[in-house]
Specification:
The complex is a heterotrimer of chains A (114), B (487) and C (478). With 114 residues, chain A is an alpha+beta fold. Chain A contains four helices and three strands; from the N terminus they run αααβαββ. Chain B has a domain of 271 residues: Amidase signature (AS) enzymes (Alpha-Beta Complex), CATH 3.90.1300.10. Chain B is built from 15 helices and eleven strands. Chain C is elongated and about 95 Å long. The chains are: A alpha+beta (114), B alpha/beta (487), C alpha+beta (478). Chains in contact: A-B, A-C, B-C.
Chain lengths: 114, 487, 478
């Protein structure tokens, strides 16, 4: 197998070992993303996320002062506006056929405490 | 049974129009091939037999009445990322195992309107995240050239189905190479159009600023025919571009002589398998003989495309996949204790490992304190890469190079290290970041496995890119090769 | 001077009065059956995409122009990511770094008549969330997504407000403005117009802002006032007892009249904003902005100034009469009929009419008493057909029976007596019947003048012209 550095003769400027994410960091990312991880999954993601972050750290090499971020591949296009017309009908029964739990037209979730 | 299945999609469409055979006959024959292949290839998640037969019968009536469209009666398959009304649409995920779409994706609706008959939904990497079609909830897809190998991904089901001649064409999507890489690994033709050329409405989003629908077929001429019907402005997609769709089929025969071809220096580096490189160089010689003028060009920032992609794509995916929460559709865990538990377990159990990895990566790079260093930085690098392409296209008409560094690899070979897997898309990702049209066509074999040549053009140059691919296929026969056992 | 200074900033959410939602073709009407107005886009179904409603953009620009703000040539929609059941996509489409409306300002009038300028940091477009329903659902919460995707403009003020009263005055000002602009129906019970209040206190004279609490979802002026007053007292009490205010989201409980911490928002949110890749930048050229500017109505402040100068009204009266576009239009309809009596018209519109409307909880535009009809009544006062006192009785009959002034006057024989001879005849009779009082008056008891006026009015059932009566009576009694 080849590795990234070999492929593009690209070597990280910094040679210290990759920054490793802690278990706590993985847990807090998983909480933010609402992903329940098993205890065996945590070290797996700890390892792979650390490696991915190290890998994408190569971006630091690029000189990007005065370069605008590009969020769309088609520069110069602008948002089209839709006329204010009601075009949708009530289809809640059809749409709710996919819902795990409904009653009286409402989607149900465990009690939310505000 | 006649040799229909080895006919190209263009030939089948013509045969149907000429009433040489019926759509029902053709559909029956291909459904039988799908059934026979399923245990080996696992290319399909759903086969829509009844609907296909009734649509084929309707197509035959339209053909008899002389009211046929460009694709009337032509069997196709849809990647299971496209929503199909009344048909299960899973995106290769447990999360959507029970999801029946109440609407058709625009691509599906357009191909239906053109008369195409859907035979089923093809297998894929879960939520299109992968380069090997191994992350599907429905098991890995296998490469028809060697079932021990991956077909590439994420559109591996569509690619395997076309390569094994189960269908003459199948829709696919490409976020970082998911059309071109499996096309290369399966020895077929695949086009990823310009971003905005094909509507994304109804195509389940992975990374919205990179996703683009396209098609996999045996030949460039077939791709031109299907793309002509798929493409075009859609008011339901704000990023769809309102410019007319040229007749890609009519443009196929435009002369190639004088075409300025740029060879990407960065694509012919140490990472490229030597045999692959040889096949690609031979293909470039063919182009030279056809009158193309080859020059070397450099895109200095292109090496950063993979790291930029693995920030941008996970960031967008982490947000796009937040809607899968077990409330309105999709998987819901058993007996949630409370709302938090409902979310976390439904998502934790409903998503597979690679999807979770990308959601977490994306969540991290967007979170407070890291946004500038990762997300914004990657979007700036994206700008640099885009500028590199723009500069290159000022002096050449198209860019050519390998589609992948190596031919198909073994199932399981790269699943342990995500970075190794991500590097499969090293030559394809640039076109996604810049939104460019690109095709992959078969250009030879290495140890019995197909190799792909990639052709990238400037925005909206699909006609140019397809005609260049077609010119090659007129003088070569790699695209006619069918894996053993499927001929 | 108090030892503590209150600092308040408001984030006002106004639902835009579009027919369809901001990113889908669903209706926005209030009160539909649950989820009947939730389309695939509103539900965040897999594969669907947002398309921006032109009218929502126009309305936001209208607001921006009305507060003298700069309209952004390019604005960008971003995703605000968080999980909540009323937020179907797991993110809210909002504007973050590049809002459509940049800094502007509004003037409010304080109790002492002083005018205070309140800075508006920005106003941006976003989509509303759905609703969570708890009642009648044991152990579960029901989600209705009809409101999800309704266009909102969020108007963010600078922390320039120094009391609950100022906050209410500012909110009322914005309320008046959005209704003038016809971009929001202003219905607070239905949640069309609501606000979050950022409240903090600091020692008087301190430069640095105190830690703030954000009180969510206040949907009446009274609640805003009470919630802020409660919160200010709570924070001062904490600080005076040596504690520290916690930065948090709080909810106002109108039944208990207090604010409490919101458990559901307890954890620190990391919204992970980033530009929404499904939407392109909104680019507005000067021509579009000028086109919207041309549709701007006369604004409340402009109208009030004009009323004061054109009709000679006090600043207060002009302010009241321009409190809504409908009221101002009604007043001007009345004045158009009686161009020489703007003050009389003002008194009647703000007095009898306002009281009658209030009593029945009606809007001025209800059509219960058309302006022309009120003008008809006032005309009879001016031409001395009836007195002002009789007019009030006539008004009541007109109000309850929907009749014209003349019909009521004729039917009840209320026409004023202006015939000098007739009035003199009555005066003579009254004098003859009350010799003792006459003698007392003539002996210097001036107060008895009123007695004679009363007697004559009684004899004429109040119809004697008061001015004439005064004059004639004075002459006769002398």
């Amino acid at each position: 197998m080849y590795d990234f550095a070999l492929v593009f003769s690209l070597r990280h400027a910094r040679r210290e070992p990759p920054m490793a994410l802690t278990r706590e960091q993985i847990a807090s990312i998983a909480t933010l993303a609402r992903l329940d991880l098993t205890s065996s999954e945590v070290p797996v993601y700890q390892d792979s996320l650390s490696r991915i972050l190290d890998f994408v750290g190569a971006l630091d090499r690029a000189q990007t002062t005065d370069v605008a971020p590009m969020s769309h591949p088609l520069a110069g296009l602008s948002q089209r506006l839709r006329p204010d017309v009601v075009s949708e009908q009530d289809r809640h029964e059809q749409y709710q056929a996919n819902a795990p739990q409904v009653a009286a037209g409402l989607y149900l979730v465990p009690k939310v405490i505000e | 049974m006649s040799g229909w299945h080895t006919d190209t999609l263009t030939q089948l469409a013509a045969g149907l129009r000429a009433r040489k055979f019926s759509s029902v006959e053709l559909v029956r024959a291909l459904l039988a091939r799908i059934d026979a292949s399923q245990a080996t290839l696992n290319a399909f998640i759903s086969v829509t037999r009844e609907q296909a037969l009734s649509d084929a019968a309707a197509a035959d009536r339209a053909l008899a009445a002389g009211s046929a469209g460009a694709l009337t009666g032509v069997p196709i398959a849809h990647k299971d990322i496209f929503c199909t009304q009344g048909v299960r649409t899973t995106c290769g995920s447990r999360m959507l195992d029970n999801f029946v779409s109440p609407y058709d994706a625009t691509v599906v609706a357009r191909l239906k309107a053109a008369g195409a008959v859907m035979l089923g939904k093809t297998n894929m990497d879960e939520f299109a995240m992968g380069s090997s079609s191994e992350t599907s909830f429905y098991g890995p897809v296998r490469n028809p050239w060697n079932p021990q190998l991956v077909p590439g991904g994420s559109s591996g089901g569509s690619a395997a189905a076309v390569a094994a001649r189960l269908v003459p064409g199948a829709t696919a999507t490409d976020t970082g190479g998911s059309i071109r890489q499996p096309a290369a690994l399966c020895g077929i033709t695949g086009i990823k159009p310009t971003y905005g050329r094909v509507s994304r409405y109804g195509m389940i989003a992975f990374a919205s600023s990179l996703d683009q629908g396209g098609v996999l077929t045996a030949t460039a001429a077939d791709a031109a025919l299907v793309l002509r019907e798929m493409a075009g402005f859609d008011a339901n997609d704000s990023t769809s571009v309102d410019t007319p769709v040229p007749d890609y089929v009519a443009a196929l025969e435009q002369p190639l002589a004088g075409l300025k071809v740029g060879l990407l220096r960065e694509f012919f580096d140490q990472g490229l398998d030597a045999h692959n490189e040889q096949r690609v160089r031979e293909a470039l010689k063919v182009y030279e003989q056809l009158g193309a003028r080859l020059t070397e060009v450099s895109l200095p920032n292109l090496p950063l495309s993979v790291p930029a992609y693995y920030v941008v794509a996970p960031a967008e995916c982490s947000s796009n996949l937040a809607r899968f929460d077990g409330v309105r559709f999709g998987y819901r865990c058993e007996k949630p204790r409370d709302l938090r538990d409902l979310y976390s377990r439904s998502r934790g159990e409903g998503f597979g490992a690679e999807v979770k990895r990308r959601i977490m990566t994306g969540t991290y790079v967007l979170s407070a304190g890291y946004y500038d260093a990762y997300y914004l930085k990657a979007q700036r690098v994206r700008q640099l890469i885009n500028a590199d392409f723009t500069r290159a296209f000022a002096s050449v008409d198209v860019l050519m190079g390998p589609t992948t560094p190596t031919p198909a690899f073994a199932i399981g070979a790269k699943t342990s290290d995500p970075i190794t897997m991500y590097l499969n898309d090293i030559y394809t990702i640039g076109a996604n970041l810049a939104g460019l049209p690109a095709v992959s066509i078969p250009c030879g074999f290495v140890q019995g496995l197909p190799v792909g040549l990639q052709i990238v053009g400037p925005h909206f140059s699909e006609a140019r890119v397809l005609s260049a691919a077609h010119a090659f296929q007129r003088v070569t026969d790699w695209h006619t090769r069918v894996p053993q056992g499927y001929a | 001077m108090s030892a503590w200074e209150t600092v308040i900033g408001l984030e006002i959410h106004a639902q835009l009065a579009t027919r369809s939602k901001i990113f889908s073709g669903s209706a926005t009407a209030y009160g539909a059956p649950p989820n009947a107005q939730a389309s695939l886009v509103d539900l965040g179904y897999p594969g669907v995409l947002p398309v921006l409603n032109a009218e929502a953009v126009r309305m936001a620009v209208k607001l921006g122009l009305a507060i003298n703000a700069r309209i952004a040539g390019t604005s960008v929609f971003a995703r605000k990511n968080y999980f909540y059941p009323d937020l179907p996509k797991g993110y809210q489409i909002s504007q973050y770094e590049q809002p459509i409306v940049a800094a502007g300002a509004l003037d409010i009038v304080l109790d002492d008549g002083e005018v205070k300028r309140i800075g508006i940091t920005r106003a941006h477009l976003e989509e509303d969330a759905g609703k969570s329903l708890h009642e009648g659902l044991p152990g579960v919460t029901g989600i209705d997504l009809n409101r999800a995707g309704t266009p909102l403009v969020e108007i963010v003020s600078e922390p320039h407000l120094r009391s609950a009263k100022e906050a209410v005055a500012y909110m009322k000002k914005v309320h008046t403005l959005v209704r003038y602009l016809e971009i929001c129906d202003g219905n607070m019970q239905e949640g069309s117009f609501r606000c979050d209040a950022n409240v903090s206190v600091r020692r008087s004279g301190a430069q640095q802002l105190g830690t703030r609490a954000e009180i969510k979802n206040l949907n009446s002026f009274r609640f805003v006032e009470r919630a802020i007053n409660y919160e200010v007292a709570r924070q001062i009490e904490i600080l005076e007892s040596g504690g520290a205010v916690v930065q948090e989201t709080r909810l106002y409980d109108p039944d208990r009249g207090e604010t409490r911490s919101m458990r559901s928002k307890e954890e620190a949110n990391d919204y992970r904003y980033f530009p929404d890749p499904d939407l392109l930048p909104v680019v507005l050229d000067q021509a579009f902005i000028e086109q919207v500017r041309a549709t701007l109505p006369e604004l409340p402040d402009q109208k009030a100034a004009r009323f004061a100068s054109q009709y000679g009204l006090s600043a207060y009266d002009a302010g009241v009469l321009t409190g809504s576009r409908e009221l101002a239009a009604y007043y001007e309809d009345v004045v158009r009929e009686l161009p020489r009596e703007p003050k009389l018209a003002a008194n009647w519109v703000m007095g009898e009419l306002a009281a009658a409307l209030n009593k029945e909880n009606l809007e001025v535009g209800s059509g219960r008493l058309p302006a022309a009809r009120l003008a008809g009544l006032l005309r009879r006062i001016c031409d001395q057909t009836i007195s002002g006192k009789i007019a009030k009785e006539v008004f009541e009959t007109m109000w309850s029976e929907g009749a014209s002034a003349d019909a009521v006057i004729d039917a009840q024989g209320l026409r004023q007596i202006t015939d000098t001879a007739a009035i003199e005849r009555v005066i003579d009779e009254v004098m003859a019947r009350n010799p003792a009082q006459l003698a007392e008056y003539r002996a210097g008891k001036d107060k008895l003048f009123g007695f004679f006026v009363g007697q004559v009015m009684k004899a004429t059932a109040g119809k004697a012209n008061p001015a004439q009566l005064n004059e004639l009576l004075r002459a006769k009694l002398a």
